[in-house]
Amino acid sequence: MPIYQYDCSGCDQRVDVFFRSTSNVADPVCPECDGTNLTRVMSTFARARSSSDRVDSIDFNQEMGRLGGGGEGEFARWAKRVGKEYDGELGSNFGEIAERAEAGEDPVERVDPGFKLKHAIDKKKSGGDDSGGAGHGDHSH
Ligand SMILES: [Zn+2]
Questions:
Q1: Are residues 66 and 11 in the same domain?
Q2: Whole-model pTM?
Q3: What are the residue ranges of helices labelled H in 37-71?
């Protein structure tokens, strides 16, 4: 669901306007005063809050392609990048796994990182919303 920020000239406030779909974004209405004289404020911040959009944008096959042969060094770099991009969104712990891999621990996740990533994406998409949890719920082992 897109969220855009507008400056409303009716009530002189900066407001967040929610749209049910991207098709009716053309007619924003101020949630404060029902005014229609709104000026769009470009903000990547508001957009980034829509986490389901972010999860949808993860291209699983592309990520697996980037993993390459999955050698130790490759895996550590891959997990580090995936962790940086998606850990916050998915509640996964790829960043942590990357650190372990770099420390030479050869984490079990290296055997099948695709399974772990897919599992995290599916869990998020299926609405398994464990907000408030520590974000390290992992039942794969
Ligand atoms: Zn207003």
A1: no
A2: 0.55
A3: 44-48, 51-56, 60-67
